[in-house]
Amino acid sequence: MKCVYHEQQICNSCTLLGLEYNQTLQQKTQTLTSLFPDAAIGPFRGVSSPQGGRIRAKLAVSGSLDELQIGFFDDQQKVIPVDQCPLHHALINDSIAHIRQMIQAARLVPYDPGSDRGELKFVVLTCSPSHQQLMIQFVLRSKEAVDRIRSLWRKMTETERQGIVIMSINIQPARSSAISGREEVGVSEQTMLPIRFDVSDTDNRDLLFGPQSFLQTNYEIATALYAAARGMIQSSGAKRVLDLYCGIGAFSLTACSSEQSVMGIDNSENAIACANETVRRSGLSNAEFQCRSLDCTSADQLTNSDFDTIICNPPRRGLDAASRALIFAIHPPQVIYSSCNPATLQRDIAELAAKYQIVELYPFDMFPFTPHFEVLALLQRKAVRSW
Q1: Please, are residues 179 and 172 in contact by the beta-carbon 8 Å criterion?
Q2: pLDDT at res. 73
Protein backbone atom coordinates (compact mmCIF):
# COMPACT_ATOMS: atom_id res chain seq x y z
CA MET A 1 0.00 0.00 0.00
CA LYS A 2 1.39 3.40 -0.96
CA CYS A 3 1.24 6.07 1.73
CA VAL A 4 2.98 9.41 1.20
CA TYR A 5 2.72 10.21 4.91
CA HIS A 6 4.71 7.09 5.75
CA GLU A 7 7.21 7.68 2.93
CA GLN A 8 7.83 11.22 4.17
CA GLN A 9 8.01 9.96 7.79
CA ILE A 10 5.13 12.18 8.78
CA CYS A 11 3.06 9.32 10.18
CA ASN A 12 4.30 6.01 11.55
CA SER A 13 0.98 4.65 12.81
CA CYS A 14 1.14 1.69 10.42
CA THR A 15 4.27 0.16 11.88
CA LEU A 16 4.28 -2.81 9.45
CA LEU A 17 3.97 -0.75 6.29
CA GLY A 18 7.55 -1.52 5.33
CA LEU A 19 6.61 -5.20 4.83
CA GLU A 20 4.78 -6.91 2.00
CA TYR A 21 1.17 -7.54 2.99
CA ASN A 22 1.57 -11.34 3.13
CA GLN A 23 4.57 -10.86 5.40
CA THR A 24 2.42 -8.92 7.86
CA LEU A 25 -0.04 -11.82 7.99
CA GLN A 26 2.80 -14.26 8.58
CA GLN A 27 4.08 -12.12 11.43
CA LYS A 28 0.64 -11.98 13.03
CA THR A 29 0.21 -15.73 12.60
CA GLN A 30 3.50 -16.26 14.44
CA THR A 31 2.22 -14.05 17.29
CA LEU A 32 -0.95 -16.11 17.57
CA THR A 33 0.91 -19.41 17.32
CA SER A 34 3.30 -18.40 20.09
CA LEU A 35 0.36 -17.69 22.38
CA PHE A 36 -1.57 -20.84 21.42
CA PRO A 37 1.07 -23.43 20.38
CA ASP A 38 -1.29 -26.39 20.78
CA ALA A 39 -4.42 -24.91 19.21
CA ALA A 40 -5.77 -25.50 15.74
CA ILE A 41 -5.50 -22.18 13.90
CA GLY A 42 -7.47 -21.55 10.74
CA PRO A 43 -6.08 -19.63 7.75
CA PHE A 44 -5.59 -15.89 8.33
CA ARG A 45 -8.38 -13.95 6.66
CA GLY A 46 -6.79 -10.90 5.06
CA VAL A 47 -8.25 -8.01 3.10
CA SER A 48 -8.62 -8.07 -0.67
CA SER A 49 -7.06 -4.60 -0.62
CA PRO A 50 -5.87 -2.65 2.45
CA GLN A 51 -6.90 0.67 0.94
CA GLY A 52 -10.26 2.19 1.77
CA GLY A 53 -11.46 -0.47 4.21
CA ARG A 54 -11.62 1.55 7.43
CA ILE A 55 -15.10 2.97 8.05
CA ARG A 56 -14.46 4.99 11.21
CA ALA A 57 -11.88 7.74 11.64
CA LYS A 58 -11.14 9.43 14.97
CA LEU A 59 -9.35 12.57 13.87
CA ALA A 60 -7.63 14.93 16.28
CA VAL A 61 -7.74 18.67 15.58
CA SER A 62 -5.17 21.34 16.45
CA GLY A 63 -3.78 24.62 15.14
CA SER A 64 -6.01 27.59 14.40
CA LEU A 65 -9.09 28.24 12.28
CA ASP A 66 -6.85 29.59 9.55
CA GLU A 67 -4.34 26.74 9.78
CA LEU A 68 -6.28 23.66 10.84
CA GLN A 69 -4.32 20.51 11.54
CA ILE A 70 -6.44 17.35 11.20
CA GLY A 71 -4.91 13.95 11.82
CA PHE A 72 -3.61 11.64 14.54
CA PHE A 73 -1.73 12.03 17.80
CA ASP A 74 1.87 10.86 17.81
CA ASP A 75 3.64 9.44 20.86
CA GLN A 76 4.36 12.99 22.01
CA GLN A 77 0.66 13.86 21.92
CA LYS A 78 1.14 16.22 18.98
CA VAL A 79 -1.26 16.11 16.05
CA ILE A 80 0.27 14.73 12.87
CA PRO A 81 -1.59 16.24 9.89
CA VAL A 82 -3.06 13.26 8.00
CA ASP A 83 -6.39 14.03 6.41
CA GLN A 84 -6.23 11.62 3.46
CA CYS A 85 -5.27 8.32 5.07
CA PRO A 86 -5.20 5.55 2.44
CA LEU A 87 -6.74 3.13 4.94
CA HIS A 88 -9.85 5.28 5.30
CA HIS A 89 -12.92 4.69 3.19
CA ALA A 90 -13.32 7.12 0.29
CA LEU A 91 -16.48 8.56 1.90
CA ILE A 92 -14.35 9.71 4.82
CA ASN A 93 -11.44 11.09 2.81
CA ASP A 94 -13.75 12.86 0.37
CA SER A 95 -15.54 14.63 3.23
CA ILE A 96 -12.47 16.23 4.83
CA ALA A 97 -12.54 19.43 2.76
CA HIS A 98 -16.21 19.92 3.65
CA ILE A 99 -15.47 19.21 7.33
CA ARG A 100 -12.81 21.93 7.28
CA GLN A 101 -15.36 24.38 5.93
CA MET A 102 -17.84 23.37 8.65
CA ILE A 103 -15.27 23.90 11.40
CA GLN A 104 -14.43 27.34 10.09
CA ALA A 105 -18.07 28.31 9.48
CA ALA A 106 -19.06 27.35 13.04
CA ARG A 107 -15.88 28.95 14.45
CA LEU A 108 -14.89 25.76 16.27
CA VAL A 109 -11.51 26.87 17.59
CA PRO A 110 -9.22 23.85 18.00
CA TYR A 111 -8.48 22.94 21.59
CA ASP A 112 -4.96 23.55 22.91
CA PRO A 113 -4.22 21.29 25.92
CA GLY A 114 -1.19 23.39 26.83
CA SER A 115 -3.20 26.54 27.47
CA ASP A 116 -6.48 24.72 28.11
CA ARG A 117 -8.18 26.97 25.55
CA GLY A 118 -10.30 26.33 22.49
CA GLU A 119 -13.25 24.03 21.96
CA LEU A 120 -12.85 21.41 19.23
CA LYS A 121 -10.84 18.33 20.23
CA PHE A 122 -11.76 15.62 17.74
CA VAL A 123 -13.92 14.93 14.72
CA VAL A 124 -15.15 11.35 14.55
CA LEU A 125 -16.38 10.23 11.15
CA THR A 126 -18.29 6.99 10.55
CA CYS A 127 -19.43 5.92 7.11
CA SER A 128 -21.90 3.35 5.84
CA PRO A 129 -20.56 1.74 2.65
CA SER A 130 -23.86 -0.05 2.15
CA HIS A 131 -25.89 3.19 2.22
CA GLN A 132 -23.22 5.69 1.12
CA GLN A 133 -23.90 7.84 4.16
CA LEU A 134 -21.78 9.58 6.79
CA MET A 135 -22.14 10.32 10.51
CA ILE A 136 -20.11 13.15 12.02
CA GLN A 137 -19.45 13.71 15.70
CA PHE A 138 -17.77 16.88 16.97
CA VAL A 139 -15.99 16.36 20.29
CA LEU A 140 -15.97 19.64 22.23
CA ARG A 141 -14.61 20.82 25.55
CA SER A 142 -17.91 22.48 26.52
CA LYS A 143 -21.34 23.41 25.18
CA GLU A 144 -20.18 26.88 24.13
CA ALA A 145 -20.45 26.08 20.41
CA VAL A 146 -23.57 23.88 20.45
CA ASP A 147 -25.87 26.55 19.03
CA ARG A 148 -23.43 27.37 16.23
CA ILE A 149 -23.24 23.71 15.20
CA ARG A 150 -27.03 23.44 15.25
CA SER A 151 -27.20 26.54 13.04
CA LEU A 152 -24.69 24.90 10.73
CA TRP A 153 -26.94 21.84 10.44
CA ARG A 154 -30.03 23.93 9.73
CA LYS A 155 -28.24 25.73 6.88
CA MET A 156 -27.10 22.54 5.17
CA THR A 157 -28.74 21.80 1.82
CA GLU A 158 -30.75 18.65 1.13
CA THR A 159 -27.93 17.44 -1.08
CA GLU A 160 -25.46 17.84 1.78
CA ARG A 161 -27.81 16.01 4.14
CA GLN A 162 -28.08 13.10 1.77
CA GLY A 163 -24.39 12.51 2.38
CA ILE A 164 -24.05 13.58 6.01
CA VAL A 165 -27.20 12.16 7.58
CA ILE A 166 -26.23 12.36 11.25
CA MET A 167 -24.52 15.12 13.20
CA SER A 168 -23.84 14.93 16.90
CA ILE A 169 -21.80 16.66 19.61
CA ASN A 170 -19.89 14.92 22.35
CA ILE A 171 -18.84 16.90 25.43
CA GLN A 172 -15.41 15.93 26.75
CA PRO A 173 -14.39 18.51 29.39
CA ALA A 174 -11.36 16.64 30.76
CA ARG A 175 -7.92 18.06 30.06
CA SER A 176 -6.63 14.85 28.51
CA SER A 177 -6.29 12.98 25.23
CA ALA A 178 -9.40 10.89 25.96
CA ILE A 179 -11.52 11.01 22.84
CA SER A 180 -15.06 11.08 24.18
CA GLY A 181 -17.03 12.02 27.24
CA ARG A 182 -20.32 10.70 28.60
CA GLU A 183 -22.62 13.47 27.42
CA GLU A 184 -23.92 13.37 23.85
CA VAL A 185 -25.92 16.23 22.34
CA GLY A 186 -27.97 15.39 19.27
CA VAL A 187 -28.05 17.83 16.35
CA SER A 188 -29.69 16.01 13.45
CA GLU A 189 -33.14 14.45 13.54
CA GLN A 190 -31.69 11.06 12.61
CA THR A 191 -29.50 9.60 15.34
CA MET A 192 -28.60 6.10 14.07
CA LEU A 193 -26.54 5.18 11.01
CA PRO A 194 -27.66 2.04 9.12
CA ILE A 195 -24.92 -0.32 7.93
CA ARG A 196 -25.63 -3.64 6.25
CA PHE A 197 -23.16 -6.53 6.45
CA ASP A 198 -24.03 -9.15 3.85
CA VAL A 199 -23.32 -12.39 5.69
CA SER A 200 -25.85 -14.64 3.97
CA ASP A 201 -27.77 -14.91 0.72
CA THR A 202 -31.19 -14.46 2.32
CA ASP A 203 -31.07 -13.13 5.87
CA ASN A 204 -29.40 -9.71 6.01
CA ARG A 205 -30.65 -6.57 7.74
CA ASP A 206 -29.48 -3.05 8.50
CA LEU A 207 -27.66 -2.69 11.80
CA LEU A 208 -27.93 0.68 13.51
CA PHE A 209 -24.99 2.57 15.01
CA GLY A 210 -25.04 5.67 17.18
CA PRO A 211 -22.19 8.18 17.60
CA GLN A 212 -20.76 6.30 20.58
CA SER A 213 -21.50 2.76 19.40
CA PHE A 214 -18.63 0.30 19.13
CA LEU A 215 -17.87 -0.50 15.50
CA GLN A 216 -15.58 -3.09 13.91
CA THR A 217 -13.52 -0.72 11.83
CA ASN A 218 -12.78 -2.67 8.63
CA TYR A 219 -15.94 -3.26 6.64
CA GLU A 220 -14.72 -6.22 4.57
CA ILE A 221 -13.19 -8.04 7.53
CA ALA A 222 -16.12 -7.27 9.84
CA THR A 223 -18.43 -8.86 7.27
CA ALA A 224 -16.19 -11.95 7.13
CA LEU A 225 -16.01 -12.08 10.95
CA TYR A 226 -19.79 -11.96 11.35
CA ALA A 227 -20.23 -14.53 8.58
CA ALA A 228 -17.83 -16.89 10.37
CA ALA A 229 -19.75 -16.52 13.64
CA ARG A 230 -22.97 -17.17 11.73
CA GLY A 231 -21.48 -20.36 10.32
CA MET A 232 -20.65 -21.56 13.84
CA ILE A 233 -24.17 -20.80 15.09
CA GLN A 234 -26.01 -22.35 12.18
CA SER A 235 -23.85 -25.49 11.93
CA SER A 236 -24.15 -26.20 15.65
CA GLY A 237 -27.95 -26.23 15.64
CA ALA A 238 -28.02 -23.63 18.42
CA LYS A 239 -31.45 -22.52 19.60
CA ARG A 240 -30.89 -20.06 22.46
CA VAL A 241 -28.04 -17.53 22.23
CA LEU A 242 -26.76 -15.13 24.88
CA ASP A 243 -24.72 -12.20 23.53
CA LEU A 244 -22.45 -10.67 26.20
CA TYR A 245 -20.91 -7.23 25.60
CA CYS A 246 -23.42 -7.19 22.74
CA GLY A 247 -23.10 -3.51 21.80
CA ILE A 248 -25.61 -2.79 19.04
CA GLY A 249 -26.13 -6.55 18.59
CA ALA A 250 -23.84 -6.90 15.58
CA PHE A 251 -22.78 -10.47 16.27
CA SER A 252 -26.10 -11.96 17.33
CA LEU A 253 -28.22 -10.06 14.79
CA THR A 254 -26.02 -11.18 11.91
CA ALA A 255 -25.17 -14.69 13.17
CA CYS A 256 -28.65 -15.75 14.21
CA SER A 257 -31.68 -16.51 12.05
CA SER A 258 -35.33 -17.08 12.90
CA GLU A 259 -34.28 -20.51 14.17
CA GLN A 260 -32.53 -18.97 17.19
CA SER A 261 -33.75 -16.79 20.04
CA VAL A 262 -31.35 -14.09 21.21
CA MET A 263 -30.76 -12.18 24.41
CA GLY A 264 -28.11 -9.45 24.39
CA ILE A 265 -26.60 -7.68 27.40
CA ASP A 266 -24.49 -4.52 27.47
CA ASN A 267 -24.05 -1.60 29.87
CA SER A 268 -24.33 1.06 27.14
CA GLU A 269 -27.78 2.64 26.96
CA ASN A 270 -27.03 4.05 23.51
CA ALA A 271 -25.92 0.68 22.12
CA ILE A 272 -28.94 -1.16 23.54
CA ALA A 273 -31.26 1.51 22.12
CA CYS A 274 -29.71 0.89 18.69
CA ALA A 275 -30.07 -2.87 19.05
CA ASN A 276 -33.71 -2.69 20.08
CA GLU A 277 -34.48 -0.24 17.27
CA THR A 278 -33.00 -2.73 14.82
CA VAL A 279 -35.26 -5.39 16.32
CA ARG A 280 -38.27 -3.10 15.95
CA ARG A 281 -37.53 -2.06 12.36
CA SER A 282 -36.79 -5.64 11.33
CA GLY A 283 -39.97 -6.96 12.92
CA LEU A 284 -38.05 -9.56 14.92
CA SER A 285 -39.85 -11.47 17.65
CA ASN A 286 -36.94 -13.67 18.70
CA ALA A 287 -34.46 -11.03 19.96
CA GLU A 288 -34.27 -9.04 23.19
CA PHE A 289 -31.56 -6.65 24.33
CA GLN A 290 -31.13 -5.41 27.90
CA CYS A 291 -29.03 -2.60 29.33
CA ARG A 292 -27.44 -4.00 32.46
CA SER A 293 -24.02 -4.28 34.05
CA LEU A 294 -22.47 -7.72 33.88
CA ASP A 295 -21.09 -7.06 37.36
CA CYS A 296 -24.67 -7.15 38.63
CA THR A 297 -25.97 -9.98 36.45
CA SER A 298 -26.27 -13.61 37.51
CA ALA A 299 -27.78 -16.55 35.66
CA ASP A 300 -30.89 -16.64 37.84
CA GLN A 301 -31.64 -12.99 37.00
CA LEU A 302 -32.05 -13.77 33.31
CA THR A 303 -35.50 -14.56 31.94
CA ASN A 304 -34.36 -18.02 30.88
CA SER A 305 -30.77 -19.08 31.45
CA ASP A 306 -31.06 -22.27 29.38
CA PHE A 307 -28.70 -20.96 26.68
CA ASP A 308 -26.85 -23.37 24.41
CA THR A 309 -24.46 -20.73 23.04
CA ILE A 310 -22.76 -17.66 24.46
CA ILE A 311 -21.20 -15.06 22.16
CA CYS A 312 -18.87 -12.55 23.76
CA ASN A 313 -16.95 -9.65 22.27
CA PRO A 314 -15.31 -7.85 25.21
CA PRO A 315 -13.02 -4.79 25.02
CA ARG A 316 -9.24 -5.20 24.81
CA ARG A 317 -8.98 -5.91 28.53
CA GLY A 318 -10.95 -9.12 27.98
CA LEU A 319 -13.59 -10.79 30.12
CA ASP A 320 -14.12 -9.53 33.62
CA ALA A 321 -14.62 -11.88 36.56
CA ALA A 322 -18.41 -11.48 36.46
CA SER A 323 -18.54 -12.54 32.80
CA ARG A 324 -16.46 -15.62 33.43
CA ALA A 325 -18.67 -16.49 36.42
CA LEU A 326 -21.78 -16.10 34.25
CA ILE A 327 -20.32 -18.39 31.57
CA PHE A 328 -19.51 -21.01 34.21
CA ALA A 329 -22.97 -20.71 35.78
CA ILE A 330 -24.83 -21.11 32.49
CA HIS A 331 -22.29 -23.64 31.18
CA PRO A 332 -23.53 -23.76 27.55
CA PRO A 333 -22.22 -26.38 25.09
CA GLN A 334 -20.30 -23.72 23.14
CA VAL A 335 -18.78 -20.27 23.60
CA ILE A 336 -17.89 -18.05 20.65
CA TYR A 337 -15.34 -15.44 21.72
CA SER A 338 -14.23 -12.56 19.48
CA SER A 339 -11.12 -10.74 20.69
CA CYS A 340 -8.97 -7.87 19.44
CA ASN A 341 -6.27 -8.74 21.98
CA PRO A 342 -4.87 -12.28 21.71
CA ALA A 343 -2.97 -11.85 25.00
CA THR A 344 -6.14 -11.33 27.05
CA LEU A 345 -7.85 -14.02 24.97
CA GLN A 346 -5.12 -16.45 26.05
CA ARG A 347 -5.61 -15.45 29.68
CA ASP A 348 -9.38 -15.87 29.52
CA ILE A 349 -9.25 -19.21 27.75
CA ALA A 350 -6.85 -20.41 30.45
CA GLU A 351 -9.42 -19.29 33.04
CA LEU A 352 -12.17 -21.16 31.19
CA ALA A 353 -10.04 -24.27 30.59
CA ALA A 354 -11.56 -26.12 33.55
CA LYS A 355 -14.79 -26.48 31.58
CA TYR A 356 -13.96 -25.53 27.97
CA GLN A 357 -11.48 -26.52 25.30
CA ILE A 358 -10.50 -24.73 22.10
CA VAL A 359 -11.95 -26.20 18.93
CA GLU A 360 -10.26 -23.73 16.60
CA LEU A 361 -9.02 -20.15 16.37
CA TYR A 362 -9.78 -18.03 13.32
CA PRO A 363 -7.66 -14.87 12.81
CA PHE A 364 -8.92 -11.83 10.88
CA ASP A 365 -6.84 -8.86 9.71
CA MET A 366 -9.09 -6.13 11.09
CA PHE A 367 -6.16 -3.67 11.35
CA PRO A 368 -3.94 -4.00 8.25
CA PHE A 369 -0.25 -3.01 8.51
CA THR A 370 -0.39 -2.82 12.31
CA PRO A 371 0.48 -5.58 14.81
CA HIS A 372 -3.19 -5.82 15.83
CA PHE A 373 -5.77 -8.31 14.60
CA GLU A 374 -9.06 -9.96 15.57
CA VAL A 375 -9.41 -13.59 16.64
CA LEU A 376 -12.62 -15.61 16.67
CA ALA A 377 -12.36 -18.54 19.07
CA LEU A 378 -14.74 -21.48 19.14
CA LEU A 379 -14.78 -23.14 22.56
CA GLN A 380 -16.56 -26.39 23.31
CA ARG A 381 -17.78 -27.64 26.67
CA LYS A 382 -15.74 -30.51 28.04
CA ALA A 383 -17.41 -33.80 28.88
CA VAL A 384 -19.52 -33.53 32.01
CA ARG A 385 -17.90 -34.72 35.22
CA SER A 386 -17.92 -33.83 38.88
CA TRP A 387 -16.49 -30.30 39.11
Answers
A1: yes
A2: 85
